[in-house]
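Chain entry —
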Amino acid sequence: MADERTDEEWVQRYLGGESAAFDHLVRRTQDRLYPTVQRIVGSRDEALDVLQETYLKVFRNIGRFQQGCSFYTWVYRIAVNQAISSRRKRRIPSLSIFGSTDSEAHEFDPLDTDAAPSGLEKLVKDERVKIVDETLRSLPPAWTAVLVMCDFDELRYDEIAAVLDIPIGTVRSRIHRAREELRKRLEPLIRDDTESPKPVPPEPERTRQRTSRSES
């Protein structure tokens, strides 16, 4: 039978003395948080470290959780800010779009296609996804975070403002500047796509035969 209790009910069970309820809260939320954190920080190991720090803060401060609020939204806010803090603690060199890092690109597919790609097509697509992902993380941490929240997690500007505790105007400004910078850094890749010559389709056999007869 599926558990129909809400996160908030599990919080109350934990505060009421049921220690196992906290583990249940972690299991209910960690898989949803991981993609967001990983897109901000890059590597799997760092993302897991961020989540560990996040739940440590949740454990220490759960008594301050306000009734009537969303537990997941509260944890999400802590996780995003922890991810930004983790990024700021390390120096990340600016990357060219063809630069490489040891960070692992999160697997997401920005292309909509019904046909199964060939091995070479998949390799090219995966490499471009990796380039876009790495370029996203070469932006300042706060810019990366707002783009992840807006374009991947589909949060509204007011929701992003609440997560980061900043004015909506600042959110708009960061998203605009981040998108402009991302577009600038990805311009060579976009230009290659638009300037690549389209392959000429092979001439039908029947047409070649008619041409050969007319020339003879």
